[in-house]
């Protein structure tokens, strides 16, 4: 059982929870869970253990296929909500995606029974549905990208906004884009030959972000 002093980090990360009556929030069973990078927090087809509130770190939520490939749906950081967990609790169905900690992560887990109790209060219900609307827009953008954008455009977009040096594997990029490592490696080498980036062991150095930005937008980079 989580005491009142332990709820302070939760309310700091999720200010919207201040709307909950104290009598409702204080007794809630909110165990603190700490996991290392790479830990699997939930798996597809497994029962939903509860509604996670991420205090620190990040959870990558992805969906797999029968062919062994997966595509990243979204990431949940501190103060954000996992809509897959919420939807499975709403429908009382197994998890429809898997979640992996991308870095050391601390979270609190609201039990299914307490989630139902909290949901009975309109402010919390409005908050959860508002997050659903935001995530739906993100997922629609993802579906549009998968359906209508070439893979090289999507890869260029994935390389932007992460700083000049990316510490990640080709497999991680393939998982994020929902493709296979060999295709990502081939495209990265093409980008390297064009002078847009330099490849190292689990390291990608962006040399020409302007060219990547042009490609991501559907244009043809100069040169």
Which stretches are low in confidence, meaning pLDDT under 50 for 5 or more residues running?
1-5
Question: CATH homologous superfamily of the largest domain - what is it?
Answer: Jelly Rolls
> What's the number of structural domains?
2
Spatial order of strands in the largest sheet: 2-6-4-5
Number of helices: 9
Write down the CATH class of the largest domain. Answer: Mainly Beta
Radius of gyration: 20 Å
Order of helices and strands: HHEEEEEHEEHHHEHHEEH
CATH topology of the largest domain: Jelly Rolls
Helix percentage range: 40-55%
Report on the architecture of this protein.
This protein is α+β, with helices and mostly antiparallel strands. It folds into 2 domains: 4-146, Jelly Rolls (Sandwich); 149-216, Arc Repressor Mutant, subunit A, CATH 1.10.10.10. It contains 9 helices and 10 strands. It has helices at 8-13, 22-25, 83-91, 112-119, 122-148, 151-159, 170-177, 181-193, 209-216, and strands at residues 32-35, 40-42, 51-56, 58-64, 70-77, 98-101, 105-110, 165-166, 197-200, 203-206. Helix 7 (170-177) crosses helix 8. The chain is elongated and about 60 Å long.
Topology:
Elements: H1 8-13, H2 22-25, E1 32-35, E2 40-42, E3 51-56, E4 58-64, E5 70-77, H3 83-91, E6 98-101, E7 105-110, H4 112-119, H5 122-148, H6 151-159, E8 165-166, H7 170-177, H8 181-193, E9 197-200, E10 203-206, H9 209-216
What's this, in brief?
This protein is α+β, with helices and mostly antiparallel strands and 223 residues long. It is built from nine helices and ten strands. It has a four-stranded antiparallel β-sheet with strand order 2-6-4-5.
């Amino acid at each position: 059982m989580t005491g009142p002093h332990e709820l302070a980090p939760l309310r700091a990360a999720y200010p919207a929870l201040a709307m909950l009556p104290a009598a409702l929030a204080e007794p809630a069973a909110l165990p603190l869970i700490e996991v290392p990078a790479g830990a699997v927090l939930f798996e597809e087809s497994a029962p939903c253990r509860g509604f996670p509130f991420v205090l620190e770190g990040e959870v990558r939520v992805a969906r797999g296929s029968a062919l062994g490939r997966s595509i990243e749906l979204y990431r949940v950081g501190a103060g954000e909500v996992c809509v897959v967990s919420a939807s499975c609790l709403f429908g009382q169905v197994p998890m429809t995606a898997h979640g992996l900690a991308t870095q050391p992560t601390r979270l609190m887990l609201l039990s299914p029974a307490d989630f139902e109790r909290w949901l009975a209060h309109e402010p919390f219900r409005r908050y959860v549905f508002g997050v659903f609307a935001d995530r739906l827009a993100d997922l629609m953008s993802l579906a549009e990208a998968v359906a209508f954008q070439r893979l090289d455009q999507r890869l260029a977009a994935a390389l932007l906004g992460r700083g000049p040096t990316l510490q990640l594997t080709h497999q991680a990029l393939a998982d994020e884009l929902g493709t296979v490592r060999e295709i990502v490696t081939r495209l990265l080498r093409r980008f390297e030959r064009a002078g847009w980036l330099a490849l190292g062991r689990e390291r990608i150095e962006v040399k020409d972000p302007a060219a990547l930005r042009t490609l991501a937008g559907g244009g043809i980079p100069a040169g």
